[in-house]
Amino acid sequence: MTEAKKYSLFLGCVMPNRFPNLEKSIRVVMPMLGVELEDIEGASCCPAPGVVRSFDEPTWLALAVRNLALAEMSGNDVITGCNGCYGTFKEALSEIHDHPEKLKEVRKVFDGMDITFNAEVDAKHIIEVISNLGADRIKEMVTHPLEGIRVAVHYGCHLLKPSKNRPWKKTQNHTFLDELVEATGAESIRYKDKSLCCGAGGGVRGGNVAISVDIAKEKLDNMLAAEADCVLNVCSFCHLQYELSQPELNKEIGEEKYQIPVIYYTQLLGLALGLDPGELGLDKHVVNTQSLLNKIFG
Amino acid sequence: MANPISGEKIGSEDIDPQFTERIIEAGADRIRTCIQCGTCSSVCPSGRRTAFRTRELMRKAILGLKDEVLASPDLWLCATCYTCLERCPREIKVTDAIIIMRNMAVDEGFMLPQHRKASQKLLSTGHAVPIDEYNREIRKSLGLDELPPTTHSKKKALKDVQKIMKKTGFKTLIDGQSEGGV
Questions:
Q1: Which of B115, B157, B160 sits opposite A203 (nearest CB)?
Q2: Which residue, A220, B58, B128, B149, has fewest beta-carbon neighbours within 10 Å?
Q3: How does pLDDT run across B85-118, given as a tens digit for each residue?
Q4: What is the C-alpha to C-alpha distance for residues B125 and A87, in angstroms, rounded to an integer?
Q5: How many CB pairs below 8 A link A and B?
Q6: Quick one: pLDDT at residue B175?
Q7: Given CB atoms, is B84 within the 8 Å cutoff of chain A?
Q8: Residue B7: what pLDDT?
Q9: Is A161 exposed, middle or buried (0-12, 13-18, 19+ CB in 10 A)?
Q10: Does B43 touch chain A (CB under 8 A)?
């Protein structure tokens, strides 16, 4: 479909059911950017590219197409704020475009349900839509620049890869999110292994939590070494990983070493647009955000 | 001098030539071009801290060591970050191959209990991570609807989703086997 200003908001699981504060920040900030959001009534799990796709690809594809179809029937493209959901939709769309026989199978599964699907819908990530507005446009809108704030940007994996099926200009060493962070007046800092995975995906967080948290620890140690004021993400599952891993690690070592506030992009932007931290759900975090807010509000 | 290298040999009974074919047919079409360079292992975040070696997994897949691969817990250490797929000089869809082999493993009954549990939640609620009491309250305090506009608040939608999972055989896959993991 076209570059519409109205999208069907796909929430997924983790955002509405574990971090509704992120959902709130998206619902508040996106309209301020001129992007209208419409709910998808009756959407399900995307479904998860880790567990569900690993278990049974045809089920994964059928449920993904159903979610896409709900948006298509309302005439909008999908917008999502989770890299996992984004990955599922981008891969599902490429599967049905490249293999029409798979779409046929999915249609058979839908038999007897009120689901029509013409495979015309597209799926976008929230940060893709913001990035298309442009960092310059964001900069113009900022009323409360976040000067002096050191931000450790975490892109996440499925936002960028597989790069053959992603809209970004480059295949690695991306800068679009850093530019959007710097548009708020904050500084995107350099840190070791910035492009490394958070460790949550692929069913690893679910099935092998110690290994998953150890991957997050490596990234958090690198952010601490770079004196980050916060970690900035655009994915509800990366967000969950950084929020939950820090208290888990603190418990393990018996000290409060890991206390880096975990901030979602629309929360950071909301602050720069002059919104109240409470309105952005910044008082509803697992890792307390006060250190960051103190630095911003002095 | 005695050979210090293990004398372990692969017997022909361990090899299933159809295994590699099935992986290729399911989409990892260039897997046989693997030159065992090890780029996949060198960029793997799980491989940095565990004995999981993507290169070894690819070699075993090409050799047709089906039973060894499908029963291995290592298969579930991939975080699907896609870095190996991006960097493979032979453009092998490494991550896709792993997902294909996971599908085969689950078909044979190898699944981690935690993954089965998440799948059961998907079957009963439409969400792999469903709402809880705590987050109902948080939603309300943020001025959001207590339940999101998903299968959580639309019964007919949940029924459709469950019907789909029954038709694709997902329900049987999850319910139909005894408890227990890899």
A1: B115
A2: B149
A3: 999 999 999 999 999 999 999 999 999 999 999 9
A4: 22
A5: 204
A6: 87
A7: no
A8: 72
A9: buried
A10: no
Chain mean position to CA A9: 13
For an interface test with B, the pick among A11, A53, A56, A163 (most B C-beta atoms closer than 10 Å) comes out as: A56
B141 interface with A at CB cutoff 8 Å: yes
CA distance A162 to chain B (A): 6
Strand ranges of the sheet holding A36-39, from the earlier edge strand across to the other edge: A36-39, A6-10, A77-80, A123-125
User: Tell me, what's the ipTM?
Assistant: 0.96
**Chain-chain contact of B103 with A202 (C-beta, under 8 angstroms):** no
Tokens of A266: 């629309």
Paired with A10 in beta bridges are: A80
- What six digits make up the tokens of A80? 């999502």
Beta strand A230-233 pairing with A262-264 = parallel
pLDDT at B177: 52
Tell me which residue has tokens 């960097």: B87
Q: Who contacts A217 (Cβ-Cβ below 8 Å, separation ≥6)?
A: A245, A249, A258
CA distance A78 to A33: 17
The pLDDT tens digits of the residues spanning A199-220 come to: 999 999 999 999 999 999 999 9
Cβ atoms of A241 and A212 closer than 8 Å: yes
Do residues A191 and A228 lie in contact, with contact meaning Cβ atoms separated by under 8 Å? yes
**CB proximity B150 to A under 8 Å:** yes
Q: What is the pLDDT of residue B181?
A: 42
Chunk chain A into consecutive blocks of 10 residues (it has 298) and report each block's average pLDDT, rounded to whole numbers.
77 98 98 98 97 97 98 98 98 97 97 95 98 98 98 98 97 97 98 98 97 98 98 98 98 98 98 98 98 96
Judged by CB atoms closer than 8 Å, whether chains meet at B157 and A44 is answered as: yes
* Min Cα separation B174/chain A (Å): 9
Alpha helix (H) ranges present in chain B?
17-25, 39-42, 54-63, 66-70, 83-87, 94-107, 113-125, 133-141, 155-167, 170-175
**DSSP assignment, residue A43?**
B
Distance CA A76, CA A43 (A): 14
> Is residue B180 predicted with pLDDT exceeding 50?
no
Q: Residue B68's CB: how many other CB atoms inside 10 A?
A: 13
What's the pTM?
A: 0.96
Tell me the two tokens of residue A177: 């999110």
d(CA B113, CA B95): 22
